[in-house]
Amino acid sequence: MSGPFTIIGGGVCGLAMAAELSSRGVQVTVIDPKGAPGDHACSWWAGGMLAPDCEGASAEPEIVRQGRKAVGWWESQGAAVHHEGTLVVALYRDQSNLATFARRAPSAATLSKGQIAEQEPHLAERYSKALFLADEGHLDPRATLTALHAKLAQRGVRFGDEITGQVIDCRGLAARDSLTDLRGVKGEMLVVRCPDMTLSRPVRLLHPRFPLYIVPRGDGEFMLGATQIETRERSRATLRSVMELMNAAYALHPAFGEAELLEIGVDARPAFPDNQPRIRRIGEVIYANGLFRHGFLLAPALAQMTADLVLDGKIPEVWYEDYRER
Amino acid sequence: MPTFYGTEVTSRLMLGTAQYPSPAILADAFRRSGAGIATVSVRREASGDQAGQDFWALIRDLGVAVLPNTAGCYSVREAVTTAQMARELFDTNWIKLEVIGHADTLQPDPFGLVDAAAQLAEDGFEVFPYCTEDLVLCERLVEVGCKVLMPWGAPIGTGLGLNNIYGLRSLRAHFPDIPLVVDAGLGLPSQAAHAMELGYEAVLLNTAVAKAGDPAAMAQAFGLAVQAGALAASADPMDARDMAAPSTPVFGKAML
Predict the structure, then answer these.
(1) What's the gap in Å between the CA of B73 and the closest CA on chain A?
(2) Are residues A123 and A147 in the same domain?
(3) Which residues of B are catalytic?
(4) Are the C-beta atoms of B225 and B192 separated by less than 8 Å?
(5) What is the tens place of the pLDDT at every residue in A215-264?
(6) Is A231–B46 a contact, with Cβ atoms under 8 angstroms apart?
(7) A217 lies in which domain range?
(8) CB pair distance less than 8 Å for B58 and A183
């Protein structure tokens, strides 16, 4: 097949798909009733961590393998990816969590207090031990989506409402109408401004009750995330969740106590029962969905596999399901 | 197999449903362990409306008895309301009652627990109270209508195992006819087997399985352990003794 293609949905999945296909020289239309990237897309609320090794401590090995493609892919699309790695810490009483994490994320190096001070001076005040995953990166999801949208338009990708050619459905949770095993996992996040605090890279706090990650967004802004609640509710941040995130941030470093609260975000991630994405053919439509908490991490691999499938007829090595009647 | 409120269950293992890497792994853990009861946190996961239905459907698809719980409730009123919501959601009178008294140790509030258990039993609920191994507290719970007791092994999520063997043993001796379940604190299958050897009917755990590197394998290990422990308890174990007792005859040897 050589196109044209119509992609439905303009979140991270749809835009990555459009980028991959259009970079291979085919005509692409993206349909998103809301237009440009914004808060209607679940990926708008993402952390933007490209951290396959960290995820590997609790996610399937395939997610790690496919996720390793993310940093290079986003850079090839002109995204500003920060190559600062990820720092993982735990409070003194939760040190056993750090040991477990190190065992399950074998590429993690152990840092001493002095080494932490070189990376994140503010954290060396409080932590004498940390794990460091050097190969990981992060990006700003909103800036990335907005820039990619503009770039695609320049490249000739149409943003319209007319379906032409093969349909690739990237609607996320809205595709529940066709994907009956897709569920929502609600996430709540915060954006704060904390000029007293400097972090150069995402920091994860391992905590038995309130695990937290903090992603620096520049200009003293930080994204704090994220809860994971089994419901497809896309609104209504609860006081409990917000309090837990804030508590964890305050525990990570008391400087966050003085942070200004800029934003409370809520949405629901689309996920299949094994929390891994799928490329699924139903009838004439191809669905790419189920990125769960791995939108920016796995959208590149999913887009590449889908493009290989529709352009070269190459069956994806993983995550592919053909539901067409034979 | 143990009978709770007139219902015989298929296994001595009860598993919680939180914190697994994915629902698929959760389902695997149930399959491989043969666990007969799934506990579900209503308060945390549900918004009480349609939105949480996907997860409930996954739990129902496990094909095991569902025991909703009031995890995370710190007051009597909260726990009672959550129980009522759970009854509607899952169409069951069973409720695992948690009234937490302390945020750090998550230990039960014994006073609130008795109060809430009394209200719920009065309202037709079949209450599974998460309690300490305190004998007097357990007597009160039985007085207000609890026909199952669920003392902790150790604080929730610690994996410390059975912290007070003496207390658990005396509960067993004191309540020969009440089903007893060790709830919380287990970290290893050997600890679950130990609970069975003490004559307990079942164990309930979550973190030890959900947070294992391979949850389904750990669940299976717990399933085997409770079988081993229960079998041992039914086999009239020998009593321990201080002096060595040779297992082979000593005839013909010099007696010193």
Answers:
(1) 12
(2) no
(3) 96
(4) yes
(5) 999 999 999 999 999 888 999 999 999 999 999 999 999 999 999 999 99
(6) yes
(7) 86-134+183-271
(8) yes
Contacts of residue A230 in chain B, CB cutoff 8 Å?
A: 45, 52, 54-55
Residue B113 corresponds to which tokens in the numbers above? 């627990």
Task: Assess if residue A325 is contained within a domain.
Answer: no
- pLDDT-derived band at B244, boundaries 50, 70, 90: confident
Dihedral sign, Cα of residue A24, residue A28, residue A34, residue A40: negative
Cα–chain center distance at A13 = 10
Q: Which residues of A touch B22 (CB under 8 A)?
A: 271, 273-276
B249: CB partners within 8 A, 6+ apart: none
Cα angle for residues B220, B226, B229 (degrees, 5° grid): 140
**pLDDT tens, residue by residue, A262-283:** 999 999 999 999 999 999 999 9
Which CATH number is A226's domain given? Answer: 3.30.9.10
pLDDT at B256 over 80: no
If asked whether residues A68 and A92 sit together in one domain, one would say: no
Tokens (6 digits) for B185: 């604190």
Cβ–Cβ of B54/A184 closer than 8 Å? yes
pLDDT at A303 over 90: yes
Instruction: Test A231 with B58 for CB contact under 8 angstroms.
Output: no
| A106/A69 same-domain check | no
The arithmetic mean of pLDDT across residues A131-151, rounded, is: 97
Q: How many CB contacts within 8 angstroms connect chain A with chain B? A: 50
